[in-house]
Design brief:
The protein is of the alpha+beta class. The protein has one domain: 2-Layer Sandwich (Ribosomal Protein L30, Chain: A). The protein has a 3-stranded antiparallel β-sheet with strand order 2-1-3. Helix 2 packs across helix 3. The longest helix is centred in the middle third of the chain and has 14 residues. It is globular and about 70 Å long.
């Protein structure tokens, strides 16, 4: 009695095949994203200005402008760009105890 072992067929890789087109989901992750700071009743205005200066390198005038947008309008878009960097900014702002969220930038 002989035993036969099944072998998987050998498939050669075709070096001339181009990668498949990216899906809409993949493009969405690679698109532009916004870092939005939301108003909260806890942080002092001077503290928010200081955080914006440290995290984003804003000058005093820009930091104050963004802080006033948060205070008066309830939110301010403080940065827009690639998702990975935007996620890092949101995380950093949250470490400073600011309420920050990430949202897709539909304008790009």
């Amino acid at each position: 009695m002989t035993t036969e072992t099944a072998q998987a067929p050998v498939v050669a890789a075709n070096p001339h095949v181009s990668p498949s087109p990216q899906s809409a989901t993949e493009l969405r992750f690679e698109g532009m994203w916004r870092v939005v700071v939301l108003n909260d009743p806890v942080n002092l205005m001077s503290y928010v200005v200081m955080v914006f200066k440290k995290v984003f390198g804003f000058d005093e005038q820009t930091a104050r402008k963004r802080m006033l947008e948060v205070h008066e309008q309830g939110r301010s878009i403080v940065w827009s760009g690639q998702r990975e960097k935007a996620e890092a900014y949101v995380f950093t702002l949250q470490q400073w105890h600011l309420t920050a969220v990430l949202e897709p930038d539909e304008t790009h």
